[in-house]
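Ticket #4471: complex job returned nothing on first submit. Input attached below:
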Amino acid sequence: MAGKPELLSRMAAGDGHGENSSYFDGWKAYDENPFDLHHNRGGVIQMGLAENQLSLDLIEEWSKAHPEASICTAEGASQFKRIANFQDYHGLPEFRQAMAQFMGQVRGWKATFDPDRVVMSGGATGAQETLAFCLANPGEAFLVPTPYYPGFDRDCCWRSGIKLLPIECHSSNDFRLTKEALVTAYESARSSGTVVKGILITNPSNPLGTTTDRATLAMLATFAKEHRVHLICDEIYAGSAFAKPEFVSIAEVVERDVPGADRDLIHIAYSLSKDFGLPGFRVGIVYSFNDAVVACARKMSSFGLVSSQTQHFLAKMLGDEAFMAMFLRESAARLAARNERFTAGLREVGIGCLRSNAGLFSWMDLRGMLRGEKTAEAELELWRVIVRKVKLNVSPGTSFHCREPGWFRVCHANMDDETMEVALDRIRRFVRQHQHQKAKAQRWAAKGHLHLSLQRHAGIASQYHALSSPMAALLSPRSPLVHAAS
Amino acid sequence: MVGKLLPAASPPLSHVATSGSHGEDSPYFAGWRAYDDDPYDAVCNPSGVIQMGLAENQVSFDLLEGFLREHPEAAGWGGAADDSGVASFRDNALFQDYHGLKTFRKAMASFMEKIRGGKARFDPDRIVLTAGATAANELLTFILANPGDALLIPTPYYPGFDRDLRWRTGVNIVPVHCHSANGFQVTVAALEAAYEEAAAAGMRVGGVLLTNPSNPLGTTMERSVLEDVLDFVVRKNIHLISDEIYSGSVFATPDLVSVAELVESRPDVAERAHIVYSLSKDLGLPGFRVGVVYSYNDTVVTTARRMSSFTLVSSQTQKTLAAMLSDDAFAEEYIRTNRERLRVRHDHMVAGLARAGVPCLGGNAGLFVWMDMRRLLLGGGGEATVADELRLWDLMLQEVKLNISPGSSCHCSELGWFRVCFANMSLDTLDVALARMGRFMDRWNKATTLQEKH
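Support reply: We reran it on our side without changes. The output follows.
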C-alpha cells in the first residue's frame, strides 16, 4: 500500500539519499546480467565497487587458526556472556587498544594514537555523518576537493542538513589540491553568505588513488587554524598505499610539521572496510584530537555501535602485531601488482591512468574517446556505451563531481586475475575498435562522407541512451548505494 | 574524558553538539556512575551498590551457549552444507547490502511470529535492520517527523527516548499523562489533551509512540486501549510507532496484543503503523546491536532501508543469529523457557517486596517491576515534590546501596514510583537486594511509628 507523501518528513520525501542519480544505471545493468567466470562470461563485469578482495584469504586463514577470536566456538565460548552483554559505548577496551595500536602501525609508527580517542560509528558512512552533526549546523558547509566519493553527499548532508561545496581540482597538475583553489572556494562560499565550518579531504584519495603530500597537509592545517575551520581527513584507504610516495597521515603532520597547529580542529575518519576487505563488519572509527568532539561523537555512537562480537574478533586480530605486519606488507604487494598489471594492459592501447600509489582503483583517462565537445553529456554517452556494449560497470567522473569530463574510475581489486584479464581484453578491443572507427570516419570525411558516418555513430550511441535513464533505485533488488558507497 | 572549555580561537561545535539533549545529565545516569564507582560483588565487595537500574536479561544465556555448543557450524564460516548464500568467510565479510542477509531477515520474521503465538505474520522483506533499537527509533523519527514537530508519548516512558528521539532530529516529545488510578493505562482524553498541548505550542504532531509491553511499567496494553490509540491516529492522520522490544518477555496473562495483530484487520491503519524490535532484551544480546524497523508503509520501508546505511548490523552477527533463530525447535524452546524464568524472577521479586511492605503495579511482562514508594513520600505536610522523590532515590542509592530508577526520570506524572530491574543479576544477588529493602523498610516503619507517637 503506497504511503501518502505528505505524511512523511521532508527528509524522507526528498532525494538526499542520493540514489536517484543516473550513476546507478550501471548497477542495474550489472544486476540484470552479472559476469561469472564459469557460468556467464558474457555478463557485465563489476568495476564500480571499491572493495579489496585480494587478501581476504589471509584473514580467513588467521580466523581459522584463532578460534578463540570467535565467541561462538568452544575455544571462545567462555567469553560469550561477557561480550554479548557488553553495550558500553566506550567500546571493549581491548578493541580500542588494538585499534589505536593498529592505526599507528599502518602509519609506520610515525604517529601514535590514544585508545581513549577511538570512537565507534556505523562504518565510515556513520563516521562522516557523526562528524557533520558535531561540527556544523544545518545550512553550513564543508569544502571538499573534487573529484570526491559520491557517498559524501548523502553521508555528510542527508540527515545533518549541512552542505558540501567543491574545491575544483584539475588534471593540469594531476588533480592536486592547491591553496589557490582552496582560497577561491572559501571566498566563493563566504561571498554567497554560506558559513564554512570545515574542509573534508580523503587521503589517500577516492577516486584518484593518490596520496596528499606533506606540504599540502601542512597548508591545510595552517589554513584551518587561520580561518578557524575544522579539517576532517578521511583516511579509510591508509592501509592501501602500495607505492611511493609514502602515505602521510594528518596525525603525523600535526604532531611534527605545523608548530602551533590547533589540534582541536583536526579529526580523522577511518574504517576497516577497505584496507581489510571487511565492509560487512561495519567498523567505522571517529578519531578526533578535540576532547569535546570525542565526547560528543561517543554519545552519538549509540546510534551506530560496532557489534561486540565483531569488536572481540577484531581486538584479537588487530592486536596480533606480527600478523598485521605481514598482512599490510602482503596486501600492499598484491595491490601494487594488480595496479601495475591493469595500467600496463591499458597502456598497450594508448589509454593512460593518473599515476596511482594507493587505493583499489585507477583513474582512467578517456578524454580522447569523447565524441565531439568534451562535455558531461559526452562523458555519460561514452559511459553508457561502456556499460551496455563493453559490459563493464565503470564509474563516470561526473558522478564524482569531476569538472573535467572524460575521466573514469575503474575498480580492479574486487576480482580475481582471470576476470581482470577478461576486463582488460574487452577494454582493449573496444579502444581498438573505437580508434578504427575514428580513423575510418576521418577517411570518409576526407572523401565527403562525413554526414553518413556521424549518423551511424549517433545511431549506436542513441540506442544505448534510450535504454537507460535516471531511475529510482527502488527497482534494484540489491543495494546500489551501499555497493556504490565505495 | 571530560569535555574541556574550548579556547576562544577554535570555531564552535554545532548546536547539536553543545545542547544537553544527549540526556546524560539526568539522575538516571548519575546512579550508573555510583554503581561504577562501588559495584556489588558477592565475594569482593558485598556491601557495594547493586545495579537494579539496568534492564538487561541475563537469565537465559545458558540456552544460547548451549545452542552454540551443539551447533558448531553456527560458529564457523560454513561449507557446502550451509545454503545461506554467504557461507564463506569471504562472502560474509564482503556482505554490506543494506537489505541484510535474507536468511537472517527470515529468521527474525519467524522469531517475531513465534513470540506472538502465530497471531500475526511478518514479511521478511519489510524488515529493515539497524544497529539496535536506539537507532531504529531515531531513524523512524527522522522519517516521520520534521524538526519542531512532536511525538506524543504516554508517561512514564523509557528515559533514553529523550535522547534517541529528540537529540539529532530536532523533534519534540509531548507527554500523554497516565495515572495509577487506572493502572497507568492510556486514555483517549489524555491523548487528546497531549495533542492540544502540542498544537497550542505551535507543534505539528507527527505521531504517537507506544512501548508495548511498557518500559517502565512492565505491563501489556489492553486490546481495547490499543484500538482506541489506532482510532486516534487515524482520526488525526498521524503515525503510530509501537516499540515492541519486550514482546518476548510476556510471562503472564493477558497475552500481548501486538499492533501487528490489529493491522491485519484494519486497512485504515497500515500505512501509518510501524513496529520497532530488537534482540537486546528478549535474547539478552545488547552488545550485538540488532534492531529492526518493521513498517507496513512501502515508502517508509524503502527510506528506512536507505537510512540504515548509517547503522547496519555486522554481517558476522547476522550470520550467527540467522543460524540460531532459524532453528524452529530452539527458538520455540527458548521463548518458552525464557518466559518461565522471567515469571519466576518476577514473582520472587514481588513476593520479597510485599514482605517488606512495598507494593508494585501488577505486571505481566518486562525485566523490571514498577514499585510503589508513594507512602514514603507522604508526611511532613504539603505535596510531595520531584526533589522529595530524588531525595528518596538518593537515600536508596547511598544508604540501601540499590541503584533503582526514579519515576521522575521516566517523566511519570505521579511521584514516588520507581523502576526496579530483576533479570540482570543472579537469584542470590536478588535476595541480597530484597533483604536490604526489607531492613530499610523495617527501619523506616520504626522511625515513622516513633514520629507518629510524638
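The longest strand of chain A covers residues 196-202. Closing as resolved unless it happens again.
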